[in-house]
UniProtKB/TrEMBL annotation:
Signal peptide region: none
Subcellular location: Cytoplasm, Cytosol; Cytoplasmic vesicle; Lysosome membrane
Alphabetized Gene3D superfamilies for the sequence: Ypt/Rab-GAP domain of gyp1p, domain 1, Ypt/Rab-GAP domain of gyp1p, domain 2, Ypt/Rab-GAP domain of gyp1p, domain 3
Keyword Cytoplasm belongs to the record: yes
Quaternary structure and interacting proteins, as annotated: Component of the TSC-TBC complex (also named Rhebulator complex), composed of 2 molecules of TSC1, 2 molecules of TSC2 and 1 molecule of TBC1D7. Interacts with TSC1 (via C-terminal half of the coiled-coil domain).
Gene name linked to the record: TBC1D7
Name of the featured protein: TBC1 domain family member 7
A Pfam family the protein falls into: RabGAP-TBC
Record-level Gene Ontology MF annotations: GTPase activator activity; small GTPase binding
Taxonomic source organism: Otolemur garnettii
Cellular-component GO terms for this entry: ciliary basal body; cytoplasmic vesicle; lysosomal membrane; TSC1-TSC2 complex
Role, per record: Non-catalytic component of the TSC-TBC complex, a multiprotein complex that acts as a negative regulator of the canonical mTORC1 complex, an evolutionarily conserved central nutrient sensor that stimulates anabolic reactions and macromolecule biosynthesis to promote cellular biomass generation and growth. The TSC-TBC complex acts as a GTPase-activating protein (GAP) for the small GTPase RHEB, a direct activator of the protein kinase activity of mTORC1.
One GO term (biological process): negative regulation of TORC1 signaling
Length: 293
C-alpha cells in the first residue's frame, strides 16, 4: 500500500469511527509549531478544512493581523492589544458613553466607533445600518470567542476586512448567487423570479452580516473560517444551499414577502448539513486550494 493510499484509508477509517479531522488537526499543529507562522499555509489549511475549535481564535488572530507571524512576539503584542482595549474602554467610561450596565456588544461598537473617529455626539443617537451590522457580527462572535479582548479585536478586524478587502466583492454576491442557483436548480430560480422575489431576498443578512443571526454560531464559525482566510464567495454557496435545502417550502410560497420572511428565520436544526453541503458546492465550483509545500 502506497503512503497516499494508506493515508486515504486512515482518513476514511477515522471518519467512519467518528474521528474526522484527526490527521488535519495534526497537520495544523505542525504548522503552528513553526517559529515563524506561514500565513499562506494557514490560509490554505483554513480554506480546505474546518479549524479545530481549540486553535480557531489563534489562527484567526494571525490571519487578521492581530498577532504577527513570529511566535515569540505573541505574548507581548497581546499585552499591547489588551492595554489599548482597556484605555479605549476607560475613555468611554470617562465621557459616560458606556457604563458597567452597557451590554458587551454595545461596548465593542462604541470602542470601534471611537477608534475609527465615528463616535456619535450622544449614545441616544439612532444607530446607522453599518452599526447594526457590527452589532450582529459582534453578538455572534461573542458566542465563539470567550475572552472579551480577543472578541473585540477579532470582531473589529473581521468588520474591517469586510469594509476594505471585500468592499468591491460584496455588492457582486447577489448576482453570483443568482448565477450559481441557476446552475444548481433553474426551476427554483424561475419560481423566485415569478414571485418577483430575487431582488427582495435577505442579501444584507446573508452578505453584509455574513449570516450572523441567521445560522447558529456552531455552524457559522465554519463559514467564517473561509471568510477570514480569504474567501467571501463561500457566502454565496451558503445562500444557494439554504434555498436548495428548503426548496419544497420555498416552492410552496407564492409571494416575495413570504419567501423573504421564511429565509430570514430558517429552521436551525439543519444548519450543520447546510454548511457542509455549501462548502462542498464551493469546492465544486471554485476548486479546492492545494497545500503549498
Amino acid at each position: 500500500m502506497t503512503e497516499d493510499s494508506q493515508r486515504n484509508f486512515r482518513s476514511v477509517y477515522y471518519e467512519k469511527v467518528g474521528f474526522r479531522g484527526v490527521e488535519e488537526k495534526k497537520s495544523l499543529e505542525i504548522l503552528l509549531k513553526d517559529d515563524r507562522l506561514d500565513t499562506e499555509k494557514l490560509c490554505t489549511f483554513s480554506q480546505r478544512f474546518p479549524l479545530p475549535s481549540m486553535y480557531r481564535a489563534l489562527v484567526w488572530k494571525v490571519l487578521l493581523g492581530i498577532l504577527p507571524p513570529h511566535h515569540e512576539s505573541h505574548a507581548k503584542v497581546m499585552m499591547y492589544r489588551k492595554d489599548q482595549y482597556l484605555d479605549v474602554l476607560h475613555a468611554l467610561k470617562v465621557i459616560r458613553f458606556v457604563s458597567d450596565a452597557t451590554p458587551q456588544v454595545e461596548v465593542y461598537l462604541r470602542m470601534y466607533q471611537l477608534e475609527a473617529g465615528k463616535l456619535p455626539r450622544s449614545p441616544s443617537f439612532p444607530l446607522e445600518p453599518e452599526d447594526e451590522v457590527f452589532l450582529a457580527i459582534a453578538k455572534a462572535m461573542e458566542e465563539m470567542v470567550e475572552d472579551c479582548v480577543d472578541c473585540y479585536w477579532i470582531t473589529r478586524c473581521f468588520v474591517n476586512q469586510l469594509n476594505t478587502k471585500y468592499r468591491d466583492s460584496l455588492p457582486q454576491l447577489p448576482k453570483a448567487f443568482e448565477q450559481y442557483l441557476n446552475l444548481e436548480d433553474s426551476r427554483l430560480l424561475s419560481h423566485l423570479k415569478t414571485c418577483s422575489a430575487v431582488s427582495k431576498l435577505p442579501y444584507d443578512l446573508w452578505f453584509k452580516r455574513c449570516f450572523a443571526g441567521c445560522l447558529p454560531e456552531s455552524s457559522l464559525q465554519r463559514v467564517w473560517d473561509k471568510v477570514v482566510s480569504g474567501s467571501c464567495k463561500i457566502l454565496v454557496f451558503v445562500a444557494v444551499e439554504i434555498l436548495l435545502t428548503f426548496k419544497i417550502k420555498v416552492m410552496a410560497l407564492n409571494s416575495a414577502e413570504k419567501i423573504t420572511k421564511f429565509l430570514e428565520n430558517i429552521p436551525q436544526d439543519s444548519s450543520d448539513a447546510i454548511v457542509s453541503k455549501a462548502i462542498d458546492l464551493w469546492h465544486k465550483h471554485c476548486g479546492t486550494p492545494v497545500h503549498s509545500s
